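Marked as duplicate of an earlier ticket. Keeping the data here for the record.
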Amino acid sequence: MNAPGPLVLRRAGTGRAPDGQTVTWSVADGARGRRWRWSITTGEGSLVHAGLIELDPEGRFARLELAAAAGLLTLHPAPDGRSAHGNVVRRDRVDPIEIPWSRQTSIALNGDPFGTAIAGWRGRGWLFRDDLTLVSISASQPVIMLDERGVPILSDTVEWPLEI
């Protein structure tokens, strides 16, 4: 009898974060790792931001894309693993990003415990503020606990399978 293969997660869902905001998300495992897409909306239904996070096959952060009122953000570690690069495209300019990076570095998103959780926050690294400026921090950030699949646990959750 063959042993079962690795868990392949292909789900979508919605739920409420601890601060009352609504999170709508999808996740899909593939040959290059896990890809998350999510949006955060206020209780009134206004979009706060929408994002994409990719994790490599070992579960390490590989890419962040975020669309917010402040601009369009992209960030990814360089192939050598010693820096991360990207940019923020704003209405009036492009702000390049280059930061030191290592396997222990993590990313947090201000006001987004869901995105911070899926990005793998470990208590120190880089925080993107609401205006998409970046600061180095070593502090706890609000993070939603993950279930056994690695999916953040929200209240009032509804989930569906993603169809191929």
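See parent ticket for discussion. The chain has one domain: 10-153.
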